Amino acid sequence: MKIMVIQGPNINMLGKRERKIYGVMTMENIHEQMKAVADQAGVGIEFFQSNFEGEIVDKIQECLGEFDGIIINPAAYTHTSIAIRDAIASVGLPVLEVHISNIYQREEFRHKSLIAPVCSGHIAGFGPIGYHLAMIGMLQIFEQIKRMDAASNDA
Q1: To 10 degrees, the CA torsion angle through 59, 61, 66, 72?
Q2: Does the annotation list 101 as a binding residue?
Q3: Tens digits of residue pLDDT in 113-140
Q4: From CA 9, how far away is CA 81, in angstroms rounded?
Q5: Could you state a single Gene Ontology molecular function term (predicted)?
Q6: 147 labelled as ligand-binding?
Q7: 74: domain range?
Q8: Catalytic positions
Q9: Which of 17, 21, 50, 72 is the most buried (most CB within 10 A)?
Q10: What is the CA radius of gyration of the chain?
Q11: DSSP β-bridge partners for residue 95
């Protein structure tokens, strides 16, 4: 099983930008922790970050047939990108949406996620630990898929 982690705009600035909102951990720190969890679980993991909507859409599409699940922090595109939403819907993979801050406690324009309705789950407001929660969630989804496959093979 393989997970693709997609980070949206400005996530590469974690640890430097708006520390009161996003904390001091860098994107690289988060990725190191996620890799440790993946290694322990025997799951492959790769990381991608872009500030460009089209590159994120391309990466989601490239996951089809190559990855078993996606963890995405679409960042500001959460509230604006029908293209990212459509790409997620088109690949048919389990996708977990992560936000470091609680988008529902912030400006009103951040309260609506265009992405969440096409995702398997949505994690917001737990800080960088939200990525760890997403890893646990994705591993659980993988386990459910394995059990369903085994049950259908037994039938």
Answers
A1: 50
A2: yes
A3: 999 999 999 999 999 999 999 999 999 9
A4: 12
A5: 3-dehydroquinate dehydratase activity
A6: no
A7: 2-154
A8: 22, 99
A9: 72
A10: 15
A11: 70
The secondary structure of 112-129 as a DSSP string is --SSGGGSSEEEESSTTH
153 has binding-site annotation:
no
CATH number of the domain to which 125 belongs = 3.40.50.9100
Nearest Cα to Cα of residue 120 among 155, 149, 91 = 91
* Residue 110 annotated as binding site: yes
79 is in an annotated binding site: yes
Query: Can you spell out the DSSP letters for the chain?
Result: -EEEEEE-TTGGGTTTS-HHHH-S--HHHHHHHHHHHHHHHT-EEEEEE-S-HHHHHHHHHHTTTT-SEEEEE-GGGGGT-HHHHHHHHHH---EEEEESS-GGGS-GGGS--SSGGGSSEEEESSTTHHHHHHHHHHHHHHHHHHHHHHHHHH-
Cα–Cα distance, 90 to 68 (Å, whole number):
14
Full-model pTM = 0.91
pLDDT, one tens digit per residue, over 27-67 is 999 999 999 999 999 999 999 999 999 999 999 999 999 99
